[in-house]
Each structure stands twice: as structure tokens, then as C-alpha cells.
Design goal:
The chain is α+β, with helices and mostly antiparallel strands. It is built from 10 helices and 13 strands. The protein starts with a helix and ends in a 6-residue tail after the last strand.
Length: about 450
């Protein structure tokens, strides 16, 4: 399986740009700084009293050990005591010297200082207090060292300098702390995910609204600010839907009302003598009638009662017949059919309307010296594809998402020479979607435009 670096890079970019990830990062950084600050302050405080703490406790502990060792002054007993107490013990006497194990640092490198106990030597630490000559404490590379000079000799006590033993001793605690941190982080992640869930709902809702799905609604389960945002989004969707419905209803009402006066005007024009004025008026009336027809047809197809008159149709023949309607107009039309006889169940008149509108636009925005408009038909087992490509002026990028909107025109001047009222492409989109297909456009300024129509292959190729 080939690793897709581009998809992985896009996924990582989305993760690091996510608000959720940023919140997690802020919490982790803030928590880490807080812990570091607490440890730094606590460490400074502990450092100030560590010397006195070590001196008083370890030295006093050594005095107890001296009392015990004086009663059993032999290596075997000292080794047993050393293993039980995790200490290294060394004895230096006049006639005998031994130590339980290696690891005692060189005393000349240890900064030893005299231990002063608030109790005097008669407090009963050892059997013969008068035998205690001197008690010294110090540290060397993290090891605590205590020396006790008695009449019998010198006793030296130190901590084993064994990092692995310390780590092994602390390992259960380390695992427990890491496990607790993992549980806390997982809980934080789940909590933030729950808190930020409405943002995911809102992202999906905005995408659905951008695609024209005005029925999409966000869950209104939360009572916090994000829940209020979801409710505001739903109210906005309802308002947009109401405005669009009102606009469409207004268009329908106006279109129906225009039918009667248009009919009367057409009848009246029949009684006017033929001249340039009569022809101009006739052209205007026909244009208005076509606009009304397109508005009503669009509304009919979008309604639940609108039906298509589907018939098995040879699309290649239908396209050729439609192209012949524009014969003699520059820069011309060239039809390329790679599907042989492609038969599909379509409404012939509706598909013919789509072809006429797109071809008329292609010719309108192409100069006579441009290459001929290409019409390509192809199909496979699942879909039929029709492409209409011109080499005209193209469509600006900022206009691409708007050209299928009713009454929208790229030419803002509303020049009569460049077309009607911006209803043609909107009707084309409605017709293709009513057939279960899709229509989309690609364009580049100065290079031309390609309209692609995809229809389901509802019949076999013969």
C-alpha cells in the first residue's frame, strides 16, 4: 500500500490548526509551567533546609547504629544490618578494619562538618557516652556521609550510590504517576472534545448550507454559549429559507400574472403593420415570454408534483440535432461522440433546452476567430458524461459559484447583446438535477470554459 504524503500532510495541518488542538496545547503548557513553578519554589525552600535536615537526622541515626554495632562488632552482623538498612558501613580500628561493600567515597574529598546535637553526649545514645569523640556529616556527589569517632575506632556510614537500585525502587511510583498523568490527559481530551462538539456541528452545518441544503439543522442539546450559537445558526437557516421561499413565490406570482398581458400583447401585435418597430416589439415580447416560461418550468421541476416525461433517447442523435440549430454561427460547433449509440431515459425537450442554453452561451461569449466549440459525449457502466468546451473569454474565479443562481449574469451591464436575464443556467441545473445528474463548470480567463454534465446511465448502450 502506497503512503500518501500529501494526504498525511493535509491531515497534520488540519490537526495543528484545530481549535481543539490549540486548547489542548494551552492546557498542557499552562499545567507544565504551573508544575515547574511549584517544584522550583518548593525545591528552593527544601534546598535551604536540606543541610540541617540531613545533618540532624542521618547523624542521629548513625549514633543509634554505633550503639548497636558496639555490641556486635563483627563484619557478618554489619553486612546483615547493611542489607536491611540500605547503607554501606565501614569500621576502622586499631587492630581491625572492614566494610560491608564498596562505594564509600574518599573522605578527603568529602566536605565534612562537625555535628552539633542539641542533646549532650550523656543522652544515652550509646552504652558509654564518654567513648564518643567526634561526629561529622557531609555529602559527596549526592551521597550522604556520616563519620563517628569513638574510643574503639571510626565508624563510617554512607548511602549506596546505586542509581539502578534507586530507579528500581521508584519504578512502581513512576509507573503510577505516568498512569495518572495519562488518565488525566485522556479525561481532559474527552472533556474538551465534548465541550467543543458544537463547533464540529457548526462546521458541518455551514458546509451543508453552502451546498444549498437549507433543511440541515444543528442539535440544540447544550445550554452554554456554543449551544446558543447552534440555535442562532438554526434561526439563521430558517430565515434564509423563508426569504428564498418568499422570493420564489413572488417570482411565480409575477410570472403567472404576466401570462395574460403577454398574450394580449402578442394578439395586438398581429394587427400592427410589419415594420422595424413591430419586429422589435415582437422580439421583446418573445423574450419576456421565454423568461416567464423558464421561471415557471424551474418551479415546476422543483415541486413535488413536477414530473419528467422520460423516454429512451439516443443522446448522440439529440445532440447532433441541437447543434444543427446553430449552424452557420461562428466560430462553429464540432461534435465528438465516443459512445457510439448512447441510449438513456431522459425528457427530450428538457435536455434539448439544456443543450440550447449552454451552446447559446458558448457562442455568445466566443469570438469568431476562436476555435470551434467542442461537444464530447462518452459513457461507462454507471454514468454518461457530456462536455461542452468553448475557447472564449472565460469566467472570473469569483463568479464561478454564482453563475447557476437565478438572475445572475457575469455581464453586469445587462447588455441585450450578451443574453437574457440570467435564468438559463439556473434552469439547466434544475433540469439536470431532476434527472438525477450533476452539472459543474471549469473555466480560465482568456482560455475558455468547460461545462460538464453527468447523467446516470439508466439504459444500456446499443
Amino acid at each position: 500500500m502506497k503512503f500518501d504524503h500529501k494526504k498525511s500532510s493535509n491531515w497534520l495541518r488540519q490537526v495543528f490548526q484545530s481549535v481543539f488542538t490549540k486548547l489542548i496545547a494551552v492546557i498542557l503548557i499552562s499545567g507544565s509551567l504551573l508544575v515547574i513553578g511549584i517544584f522550583a519554589i518548593g525545591g528552593e525552600g527544601f534546598k535551604e533546609f536540606r543541610g540541617k535536615f540531613f545533618s540532624n537526622n542521618l547523624a542521629q541515626y548513625g549514633m543509634y547504629l554505633v550503639r548497636d554495632l558496639e555490641e556486635n562488632l563483627n563484619l557478618e552482623y554489619a553486612r546483615d544490618l547493611s542489607q536491611r538498612l540500605f547503607l554501606i558501613i565501614r569500621f576502622e580500628g586499631e587492630n581491625d578494619s572492614w566494610q560491608t561493600s564498596s562505594g564509600i567515597p574518599p573522605l578527603e574529598k568529602v566536605h565534612l562538618r562537625k555535628w552539633i546535637n542539641k542533646y549532650d553526649d550523656t543522652s544515652g545514645f550509646i552504652n558509654n557516652p564518654d567513648s564518643v569523640v567526634n561526629v561529622m556529616v557531609g555529602r559527596y556527589k549526592g551521597q550522604g556521609v556520616v563519620t563517628v569517632d569513638t574510643m574503639k575506632g571510626r565508624f563510617i556510614f554512607t548511602e549506596p550510590h546505586d542509581d539502578w537500585r534507586e530507579i528500581r525502587f521508584l519504578l512502581p511510583w513512576i509507573i503510577a504517576v505516568l498512569g495518572l498523568i495519562g488518565i488525566i490527559l485522556a479525561g481532559t481530551w474527552l472533556a474538551l472534545r465534548w465541550i467543543m462538539k458544537p463547533l464540529n456541528w457548526l462546521s458541518v452545518g455551514v458546509s451543508a448550507l453552502g451546498e444549498g441544503n437549507l433543511e440541515h439543522r444543528l442539535p440544540e442539546k447544550r445550554g452554554d454559549e456554543l449551544g446558543n450559537l447552534a440555535r442562532a445558526f438554526n434561526r439563521m437557516s430558517d430565515s434564509i429559507k423563508e426569504m428564498l421561499t418568499a422570493r420564489e413565490q413572488l417570482l411565480l406570482d409575477v410570472s403567472h400574472e404576466l401570462r395574460s398581458p403577454l398574450t394580449r400583447m402578442k394578439v395586438a401585435l398581429e394587427f400592427i403593420p410589419e415594420n422595424s418597430s413591430q419586429e422589435s416589439l415582437q422580439s421583446d415580447v418573445n423574450e419576456m415570454e421565454q423568461m416567464v416560461t423558464e421561471i415557471l418550468e424551474t418551479a415546476r421541476l422543483k415541486s413535488e408534483h413536477g414530473k419528467l416525461d422520460r423516454l429512451d433517447t439516443d443522446l448522440g442523435t439529440l445532440i447532433q440535432e441541437t447543434c444543427l440549430m446553430f449552424e452557420g454561427k461562428d466560430p462553429g460547433i464540432r461534435f465528438e461522440n465516443s459512445a457510439e449509440k448512447c441510449v438513456a431515459q431522459v425528457d427530450v425537450e428538457q435536455i434539448r433546452t439544456v443543450l440550447k442554453n449552454i451552446l447559446a452561451n458558448a457562442l455568445k461569449y466566443s469570438a469568431p476567430e476562436n476555435n470551434p466549440i467542442k461537444v464530447r459525449l462518452s459513457n461507462d457502466n454507471s454514468r454518461i458524461q457530456l462536455e461542452i468546451q468553448d475557447y472564449g473569454q472565460g469566467i472570473p474565479d469569483e463568479e464561478m459559484d454564482l453563475i447557476f443562481e437565478p438572475f445572475y449574469r457575469v455581464d453586469k451591464s445587462r447588455n441585450k447583446d450578451t443574453g437574457g436575464y440570467g435564468l438559463g443556467l439556473s434552469l439547466c441545473k434544475t433540469i439536470i438535477e431532476a434527472h438525477g445528474g450533476t452539472i459543474f463548470v471549469k473555466s480560465s480567463m482568456g482560455k475558455g470554459t468547460i461545462f460538464s454534465l453527468l447523467l446516470p446511465n439508466t439504459s444500456s448502450t446499443i
